[in-house]
C-alpha cells in the first residue's frame, strides 16, 4: 500500500463517516504535509550522519508509507471516539502509537532483509528499539496534530451552531416584537371605527376598514429580520395616517423633514409605526384644534442616522412619554436586538406644546 493509497483510504473513511467533508480534506492535507516534512527531515538527519540521502530515499519512502498506514488506522480509531474527552483520546493515541511502533520496526527489518537477499540479516535488538522509539514519537506526534485539528473543527462547528441558535432566537424575538405592533395598532384603529359608527358616520367607518385591510396586508407580509428603505417605511406611515385621515382630515397637518440623500437608507420595517401611532393617539387626538405631525430624518455628525416623530400636544402640556410605554419600549427592544447597543429610542425636549421621540441607529445604505 502506497502513501497515496493510505491517504485515499483515510479520506474515504472520513467522507463515509458522519461529519463535514471539509474536515476530511483538512486531515488529508495535514497528513500529506506531515509525511513530506518527515521525509525531508529524515533525509537531512541521515545526510548529516553520512548516509547518501538519494540512496536511502527508497528505504525512507517504504518506511514512511508503512507508518502512514499505521497512522491511518490510529486516525480512524480516534475518529470513532471523537465524542469522548480530549484526555481519553490522547491516552488512546499514546497506547495505539506504542502498540503500532513495533510493527513499523518489523517492516523496517523485513525491507532490509529484502534488499540484501540472499544474505542473512541478524535481528539487532538495539536498532529495533531505536526504530520503535522513533516511530512511537512519530505516530504520537501525528495523533496530537490530528486531535488538535479535530478539536479546532469541533470548535468551529460549535461556534456555527451557536451562531445559528442565536440567529434563530433573534429572529423569534424580532417577530414577537413586530407582532406586538400589529395588535396594538389594530385595537386602536378598531376603536376609532367603533367611535365613527357611534357617531353615525358609517360610510367613513367603512372606508377606514378597507384602508385598514390594505395596510395590514402590506405590513403582515414584512420580514421582521429584513430592512426596508427609509422612503418605503415613511410611505407605510403615510398609509397609516390616511386611515386616520377620516377623523382628522380637517385639522391634521403632516410634514416631512427628510434629508433626500437618506431616502435609500435601510431601517427595520415598521420601526416608526409605534411612534406615529402614539403621536396620533396621545397628541393629535387630544388636541382640540389644528395639530401638526412631523416625520424627520437626518444624518448626525458621527455618521449615525436620526429619525424622529414630532407632534402637537394639548395646550398647557409639556413634552413627555406618558402613555407611550409600550410603543417606546417595543422600539427600544427592537433596536437593542438589531444593533446590539448601537441604537436607541428616546423622548427629547421639543418645546412648549410639542412632543418629540427620536430613534438613533447606525446609518446603513
From TrEMBL:
One Pfam assignment: His_kinase
Keyword GTP-binding: no
Ranges of residues in domain Signal transduction histidine kinase internal region: 172-252
Key words, A-Z: Membrane, Transmembrane, Transmembrane helix
Transmembrane residue ranges: 27-49, 61-79, 86-107, 127-149
Keyword Transmembrane helix: yes
Domain of life, per lineage: Bacteria
InterPro entries the record matches: Bact_2-comp_sensor_kinase (IPR050640), HATPase_C_sf (IPR036890), Sig_transdc_His_kin_internal (IPR010559)
Protein's name in the database: Signal transduction histidine kinase internal region domain-containing protein
Organism: Rhizobium herbae
Phylogenetic placement of the source organism: Bacteria, Pseudomonadati, Pseudomonadota, Alphaproteobacteria, Hyphomicrobiales
Amino acid at each position: 500500500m502506497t502513501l497515496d493509497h493510505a491517504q485515499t483510504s483515510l479520506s474515504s473513511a472520513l467522507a463515509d463517516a458522519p461529519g463535514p467533508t471539509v474536515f476530511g480534506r483538512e486531515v488529508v492535507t495535514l497528513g500529506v504535509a506531515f509525511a513530506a516534512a518527515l521525509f525531508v527531515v529524515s533525509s537531512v538527519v541521515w545526510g548529516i550522519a553520512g548516509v547518501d540521502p538519494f540512496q536511502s530515499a527508497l528505504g525512507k519512502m517504504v518506511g514512511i508509507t508503512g507508518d502512514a498506514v499505521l497512522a491511518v488506522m490510529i486516525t480512524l480509531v480516534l475518529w470513532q471516539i471523537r465524542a469522548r474527552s480530549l484526555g481519553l483520546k490522547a491516552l488512546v493515541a499514546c497506547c495505539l502509537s506504542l502498540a503500532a511502533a513495533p510493527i513499523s520496526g518489523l517492516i523496517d527489518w523485513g525491507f532490509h532483509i529484502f534488499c540484501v537477499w540472499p544474505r542473512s540479516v541478524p535481528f539487532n535488538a538495539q536498532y529495533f528499539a531505536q526504530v520503535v522509539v522513533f516511530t512511537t514519537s512519530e505516530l504520537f506526534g501525528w495523533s496530537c496534530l490530528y486531535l488538535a485539528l479535530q478539536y479546532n473543527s469541533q470548535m468551529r462547528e460549535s461556534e456555527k451552531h451557536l451562531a445559528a441558535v442565536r440567529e434563530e432566537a433573534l429572529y423569534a424575538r424580532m417577530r414577537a416584537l413586530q407582532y406586538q405592533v400589529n395588535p396594538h395598532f389594530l385595537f386602536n384603529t378598531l376603536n376609532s371605527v367603533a367611535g365613527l359608527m357611534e357617531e353615525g358616520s358609517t360610510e367613513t367607518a367603512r372606508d377606514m376598514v378597507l384602508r385598514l385591510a390594505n395596510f395590514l396586508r402590506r405590513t403582515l407580509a414584512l420580514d421582521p429580520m429584513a430592512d426596508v428603505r427609509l422612503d418605503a417605511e415613511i410611505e407605510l406611515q403615510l398609509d397609516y395616517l390616511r386611515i386616520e385621515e377620516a377623523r382628522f382630515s380637517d385639522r391634521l397637518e403632516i410634514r416631512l423633514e427628510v434629508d433626500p440623500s437618506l431616502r435609500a437608507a435601510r431601517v427595520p420595517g415598521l420601526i416608526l409605526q409605534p411612534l406615529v401611532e402614539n403621536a396620533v393617539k396621545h397628541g393629535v387626538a387630544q388636541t382640540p384644534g389644528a395639530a401638526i405631525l412631523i416625520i424627520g430624518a437626518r444624518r448626525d455628525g458621527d455618521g449615525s442616522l436620526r429619525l424622529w416623530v414630532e407632534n402637537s400636544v394639548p395646550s398647557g402640556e409639556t413634552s413627555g412619554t406618558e402613555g407611550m410605554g409600550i410603543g417606546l419600549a417595543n422600539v427600544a427592544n427592537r433596536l437593542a436586538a438589531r444593533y446590539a447597543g448601537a441604537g436607541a429610542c428616546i423622548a427629547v425636549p421639543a418645546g412648549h406644546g410639542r412632543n418629540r421621540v427620536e430613534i438613533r441607529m447606525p446609518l446603513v445604505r
